């Protein structure tokens, strides 16, 4: 499904470089205008390569997919090269209308975002919010309901214990895997912020390494680690802090502080640019990859007859676990790097969270009232018999 009509404007390049290297006649006029302004071809290359670096590889690949679908639509509809960019509002409306009902509305919007970036890179006017486009985007949302993914389930303590039982925590791979799982869970972090996608896409500006700052402290008798992440989805290169707090004794087998320190002890003496959760292997350091981690853990969960989960499930499960124990939503928001309380859409099993919260509130009010009036806080100890 990725075939297109051969054209010198569209060389065969990786998806994440289509935004930069797929062109139209308009692109030629833009380069000519730059030359007339005194911008040499070498400086033009620097401009466009740095524009490409302003977006992470996953975003560029996703946008490249949108550009591919738009190109295929234009090929089928015999749209001329010059009409493809700047694309007028009628062409964009026809593209959206043609795709309604074939995928989710979110997917179509993402394709449009890719086209918009393609226009920006080529200094072309963008008409994607004009005329019928806003209404057609709403139609795409309605027409793509059947393609929406079901809500992601959470990782639970049962999942984590099944994973722990399958790992040798004294082995390099087992220690790294266990530490990554608990860091994602208790730190409410995306796996993409902790693990790398592939060795070829590893970058010290995007992927946190072992030389990162790790703060160690004790708060109210609990050990706390603060791990600096060099990149997060919301802050990008500003990075953020992943805070891990030692859990109470009843869940000490799921303690993220112990797991991370165990990983550092077993996978010791790395070079500065070794990924955070890389592990020792006979041939040197091996990377713990996001996809392989998910595949191996999913196999464990299926064998244990537990709900199937996905990468985001660690983040969801950690926030749910903290909510159910009474941690304020605002604190969880800060912990997981959310910029608003929108993370509450990830709540699962509200039948557990809400009664638990109400019960805690009742207990607090009872204790407060009893203390104010000199009564025991244990309701069962109260006597209402007449004197």
TrEMBL record:
Keyword Lyase attached: no
GO molecular function: DNA binding
Keywords from the named record: DNA recombination, DNA-binding
Biological process according to GO: DNA integration; DNA recombination
InterPro entries (UniProt xref): DNA_brk_join_enz (IPR011010), Integrase-like_cat_sf (IPR013762), Integrase_recombinase_N (IPR010998), Phage_Integrase-like_Recomb (IPR052925)
SUPFAM superfamilies: DNA breaking-rejoining enzymes, lambda integrase-like, N-terminal domain
Protein name per the record: DNA breaking-rejoining enzyme
